[in-house]
Amino acid sequence: MGMTLGLLAVRYGCELRGDPDSVVDRVATLTSAGPGAIGFLANPVYRSQLADTQATAVILGTADADNCPVAVLIAQEPYAVYARVAADLHPSPPLRPGIHASAVLGNVACVPASCQIGPGAVLGDGVSLGERVSIGASTVVGEGVEIGADTRISAGVVIYVGVRLGSRCLIHSGAVIGADGFGFARERDGSQIKVPQIGGVVIGDDVEIGACTTIDRGALGDTFIADGVKLDNQIQVGHNVRIGAHTVIAGQAGVSGSTTIGARCTIGGRVAIAGHLVIADDVVIGGGTGVPGSILTAGVYAGGGTPADTLQRWRKNMVRFGQLDEIARRLRAVEKRINRDS
Question: Do the beta carbons of residue 149 and residue 167 sit within 8 Å?
Fold first, then answer.
């Protein structure tokens, strides 16, 4: 079902230059868009595609509006507006309330009639679901799990005992929430004794967890994921980690146990964060960076992976790396002295 440009402009606070009665019914790239499609320009890399677009309209910023040959919706944050328009024009499949005949339900605490339980899903004793929760095919929900209203669990997810999920969450296939954390005590003979992981996992509202991401349960207290956190695919979150509100973590990142990450952080792919650290609010960490110590000041940090080396030499080189500015300053002073004396 299409929407008029006038309606979109009012709904999302955009300046419209064009016919408010024009209708768009889908989103598309600048190069593939045709009549009825709406595109967007947020990255200047694609600015050259603007002049030839066949879209009905384009969402963009003020700086590019005069160069667009079609109607425009001018927004302060074009990509954010595009995301909302895309959700309007391409909504998620509608919920089909009911419990599939092949689903297995224990002595559940609460499954409202508005919920959808897919084929082969298993719900343990004491599970409590909010209104309009969707449980995908072959998903397993352990005993006592609580899931808030309008949360969608995709096929093949495993949610262990003692997990609480908030409202409007989206959990993608293959995610495992609440598995044991990696906790072992070493004996004198080198053998390992498993440390019981008796905590849980608490996940806030509006959280998205990507495919095959794992979030370990706490060893004693809970692992905690705050409201609005977005986790990409194939991320490892260790036991007792705490992630602050609206933090975003890209794929293949790993967060070791008992580390606290602040609010509104952006963590790139393949970032490796050691355990028992504190990351401040509003920190950005570039992809491939290793984080061996706490970051207590907001800002942008990077340290792409260096080639593997012996630990002793790597440590020495890292110390020298931190001294490069001082060495360069001293070298310049020596060069000036030599030039002056020659």
Answer: yes
Task: Find the angle CA(7)-CA(9)-CA(12) to the nearest 5 degrees.
Answer: 105
> What superfamily in CATH does domain 98-301 come from?
Hexapeptide repeat proteins (2.160.10.10)
- Which of 90, 172, 239, 276 is an active site residue? 239
Specify whether the CB–CB gap between 284 and 266 falls below 8 A. yes
Domain 3-89 in CATH 3.40.1390.10: yes
Task: Give tens-digit pLDDT for 247-297.
Answer: 999 999 999 999 999 999 999 999 999 999 999 999 999 888 889 999 999
Long-range pairs, 88-93, Cβ under 8 A, ≥24: 88/3, 88/8, 89/2, 89/3, 89/24, 89/25, 89/26, 89/27, 89/38, 90/26, 90/27, 92/152
90 tagged catalytic: no
Look at residue 201 and tell me whether its pLDDT is greater than 80. yes
pLDDT band for 146, please (50, 70, 90 cuts).
very high
